[in-house]
């Protein structure tokens, strides 16, 4: 019996229309366009301004685009998995809301949370449903409304984040294509350096937690920078070498868009040609789980069947990982 693997057969995405520029942020905190650009590489980010809209809204738009591009019947979708740290509610799942509003009436739906590493973890999870042979179509959504958990009085973090969402369709193949290999890692000792202090069962919401901005991202930038560069680069190298490849064999690398200095330092540590590195942080900022699918969406027309692509990420947990993907279609014909 031929081995079943999972391939990506389409990409949809959504970014809000409203733009928050560096000049806009300089009116909120003591910073400047020059400081932000040189420190993190962000020029602007997209903002979902409507307080009544959350990740599900962006996910619905991304999935609708995906269905329009691929022409599939929503009722044929077996499952929807949503990777997000900023779900609409603690419950129900954001995936269930997306499924309902996109007509996926026969799909199971659940959320997973691995912070900025949600895409690389979720892609492997979704792929395994296809590899099992029991499911034919899985929609994987990854996105965050980071502005909902950003403290706009903290000049070290508020410059980083934007909102966005991506959606991928995964289907089976017996060709030597698809998600070929994945390495996933977690180190819980990283918790103190990158987390949200309140809002969970340990520290539920209170007047004190709200007044102290404890429902926002807390990050110790220098520590996170060091680990992000080394862990993200090293796992990509491990994955490349484990599959008997050289850096010349790799056509594209899509790293998590956390900070342009992190991306550049990781690329230098790997020794990868910078022309092969997908970057769009200057336009969107750090969109957490959405950053890699937004890169794939923007680069889709340049991707060709058989291209060897490495996806790598690092996030809270600490969590990090990489996927090795052999692209399944010519993007220019979609």
Condensed summary:
This protein is of the alpha/beta class and 334 residues long. The chain has helices at residues 22-26, 33-40, 55-70, 94-101, 118-131, 207-211, 221-242, 260-270, 281-284, 291-299; strands at 5-14, 18-21, 44-47, 79-83, 108-112, 138-145, 163-173, 178-186, 194-196, 217-219, 252-255, 308-315, 319-326.
Structure commentary:
The longest helix has 22 residues, at 221-242. With 334 residues, the protein is α/β, with parallel strands linked by helices. It has two domains: 5-175, Peroxisomal Thiolase, Chain A, domain 1 (3-Layer(aba) Sandwich); 180-333, 3-Layer(aba) Sandwich (Peroxisomal Thiolase, Chain A, domain 1), CATH 3.40.47.10. The strands form four sheets. It has a five-stranded mixed β-sheet with strand order 1-7-6-4-5, with helices on both faces. Strands 8-13-12-11 form a four-stranded mixed β-sheet, with helices on both faces. Strands 2-3 form a two-stranded antiparallel sheet. The model has no long low-confidence stretch (mean pLDDT 97). Strand 4, helix 4 (94-101) and strand 5 form a beta-alpha-beta unit. It is globular and about 60 Å long. Helix 7 (221-242) packs parallel to helix 8. It is built from ten helices and 13 strands.
